Amino acid sequence: MKTDPQLEKRKNLICELVADETYVPMKEKEMAAFMQVSGTDREVFREVLRTLLAEGRIQLTSQGRYVKPDSERPVGTFVSHARGFGFVEVEGFEKDFYIPAEHTKGAFHLDRVQIMPLTGDGGKRREAAVVRILEHGIKQLVGTYEQSRNFGFVIPDNGKIGADVFVPAERSRGAVTGAKVVVELTSYGDESHKPEGKVVEILGHINDPGVDILSVVRRYELPVEFGEKVLNQAGRVPEEVSEADRAGRMDLRDLQMVTIDGEDAKDLDDAVSLYQDEEGLYHLGVHIADVANYVQENSALDWEALERGTSVYLVDRVIPMLPHRLSNGICSLNQGVDRLALSCLMTIDGKGEVTDYQIVETVIRVNRRMSYTSVRKILEDHDEGEIGEYEALVPMFEQMEELAAILRKRRHKRGSIDFDFAESKIILDGEGHPVDIQPYERNVATRMIEDFMLAANETVAQHFFWMELPFVYRTHEEPDTDKIRKLATFIRNFGYHMKVTGEEIHPKEVQKLLDKIADTKEEMMISRLTLRSMKQAKYTVECTGHFGLACRHYCHFTSPIRRYPDLQIHRIIKEQLRGKLTEERMKHYEERLPEVARHASRMERRAAEAERETDKRKKAEYMEEHTGEVYEGVISGITQWGIYVELQNTVEGLLHVSALPGDYFYCDEEACEMVGKESGIVYKLGQRLAVQVKGVDRQAGNVDFKLPEAAEDLA
Fold first, then answer.
1. I need a surface site. Which of 413, 574, 578, 638 has the fewest CB within 10 A?
2. Pairing state of beta strands 652-656 and 702-706?
3. What pLDDT sits at residue 468?
4. pLDDT given at position 502
5. What span, in angstroms and rounded, lies between the C-alpha atoms of 58 and 60?
């Protein structure tokens, strides 16, 4: 997203021109003359037109004239499948368009394409044909090099790309069979030709330590190193809070407060304080590092943070949004030192209602840096040694536990949904090989901090919503009605009911269902199906509410070190507090924020996909050492090609349909079952099953299971 700050303004002017009723379609030269574009700006103007074409906001006729988009031929992103067909995701359309293999027009994975619908909706996925490829989405890809006699080819890591990439011998950079390489595409191929490319980087051999994760980093184009200009700016940031910085801020340095994080956390961006007054009211303070004080808008640091969008947490490394000089230094709320913060100070009654609040710039000093483990030992284990060490803080922790329970009860009452799936942490040795997979359990301390952050995020969001100022919200739309109706139909087989009225479902209905299935044998199955019925949360400039949390106003305010939307709204908050949010600044944010929200949502999805892939690869590598061993698992998915089984250590593998002995098995999608045609043997979602590790594909992160001899159903 490295763009000129004026880009959106220029794009909007062109869109307004072509949408005008009096507009006569023009070629580039005519439009440049009409808009009085100078010769020196012509290349920039051409780039703006190219961008608008790729976004589908304007179109080009066969005569080379620019016109407004044809609503009958929408523009979207092509997502390919290894079998040749694909799907096109179009913004504003609820469902993707299915593109049969014969109608892809040679489109490559992630190309921006214009399509022509072939069928009506009819309740099913619409079919369409690609009519024009507007822009290639992938310029480089990562894969494994295979040497042939006079040439080579690269097998892409991305399983959605079905074709290998042909590499002429003179463009191989000396790569050998088994090398992990980055290949730049020089031709995207067609129906009769493979894609072609040249090797631009050799990452190492497929079995070298760290190469598997580096391959993921390159594949997702995750920016690792910071540029010189960014590092120079970070280097000029002071290491201590100056007297000038403290001026005009509320001084909370005498207020008892702590940070509570994981043992290995280094960027501490939130601290909490709590005391109870004589009337029994709780005074909760959520204090967030004032990153915006050190990262100025439109600085090199800001553009880099905007481009990255989020920190990425891979299994063996963190790729930060901001340089360590900031995230682990002046912006980290370290124990015993002065720090600048934005504080949300809330007064909360015994029912969990925020009766009063204040959002203010502060200077703080954290008393102790606590870990989740220590706080758990104090509150759950009543560990005498831990209680003795933190004696002065124990009363506050006990009040925090009280308040967190009250807040959670209030959220539950209004219908907030809480999926509690098992999570794990992969333990690596010095060379990056997995040696253990340990469960990560939410405890009293993790839940407590979660409750306080949710309260602050909600309070800040509703405050700025009612002020009617430009803002970035965290929104979660209502689930698709068709999916919920299918879920409601399915759960009736187990004696459960969910009320769906008209086109709406209240989150409380989902929550009631999760409460009913708690501790039953079908809990995991129904929880998974319910989660799959939900939409993905995203960032938007419209405050449309958060379905999962059952709240009208929500934002991300509490992590400006690692999430750009938080940093962005901190700037708006500070400008409003200082009376500097003029009409001009409001207009600036109205133009800037929609793209900030869209880009941040895209970067969040990219980070999540990269994190999932690295976890899968390391889990597969771990299971390779356990080939032949038998495990107990739960059926987590059923497809036409087989049964997915999740083990207690959170590793998921495939029991291929061909590995089911003694019968022909078929998938009953409606019932989520795999059924034996003759025997009547049924495998159901959520059923417990003994499986044996058959083999793994470390590069793809796949684990294959088979039924052990004399397999015994554990259901």
1. 578
2. parallel
3. 94
4. 66
5. 7
pLDDT recorded at residue 124: 60
Are 135 and 107 within 8 A, CB to CB? no
Measured in degrees and rounded to the nearest 5, phi and psi for residue 400 equal: -60, -40
Q: What is the mean pLDDT of residues 343-372?
A: 97
Mean pLDDT on 46-70: 80
Phi-psi region of 550 (alpha: psi -120 to 50; beta: other; left: phi over 0): left
* Cross-sheet strand order for the sheet of 338-348: 250-251, 354-365, 338-348, 282-289, 270-276, 257-261, 368-371
pTM: 0.86
Among 127, 183, 176, which residue's Cα sits nearest to residue 154?
Answer: 183
- For 180-229, the pLDDT digits (tens) are 999 999 998 877 788 999 999 999 999 888 899 999 999 999 999 999 99
Token pair 């959170």: residue: 650
State residue 134 phi and psi, 5-degree precision. Answer: -90, -35
DSSP-derived pairing of the beta strands 179-187 and 642-647 = unpaired
DSSP 638-684: EETTEEEEEETTS-EEEEEGGGSTTS-EEEETTTTEEEETTT--EEE
Contacts of 393 (CB under 8 A, 6+ apart): 256, 258, 367, 368, 370
pLDDT exceeds 60 at position 121: no
Which tokens sit at 696?
């793994």
Q: How far apart are alpha carbons 190 and 203 in whole angstroms?
A: 28
Asked if residue 69 has pLDDT above 90, the reply is no
Angstrom distances, CA of residue 693 to CA of 120, 295, 653, 683? 45, 50, 9, 19
Fold of 626-706: OB fold (Dihydrolipoamide Acetyltransferase, E2P) (2.40.50)
Phi, psi of 294 (to 5 degrees): -110, -15
Q: Considering only CA atoms, which of 610, 640, 541 is closest in space to residue 8?
A: 541
Considering the four listed CATH numbers 2.30.30.370, 2.40.50.140, 3.40.50.2300, 2.60.40.1930, the one that applies to the domain covering 75-135 is 2.40.50.140
Q: pLDDT by residue (tens digit) across 551-565? A: 999 999 999 999 999
b/e burial code for range 674-693 (CB count within 10 A of at least 16 → b): bbbeeeeeebbbbbebbbbb
| 29, 488, 550 from 54: Cα distances, Å | 19, 40, 37
51 — pLDDT class (breaks 50, 70, 90): confident
For residues 189 and 196, the answer to whether their CB atoms sit within 8 Å is: yes
Question: Rounded to whole angstroms, how far apart are CA atoms 473 and 545?
Answer: 9
Q: Are the C-beta atoms of residues 192 and 178 closer than 8 Å to each other?
A: no
Residue 536: band (very low, low, confident or very high) from pLDDT cuts 50, 70, 90: very high
Mean per-residue pLDDT, 96-107: 88
| Token output for 224 | 């690792």
Four-way CATH pick for 140-208: 3.50.50.60, 3.20.20.70, 2.40.110.10, 2.40.50.700: 2.40.50.700
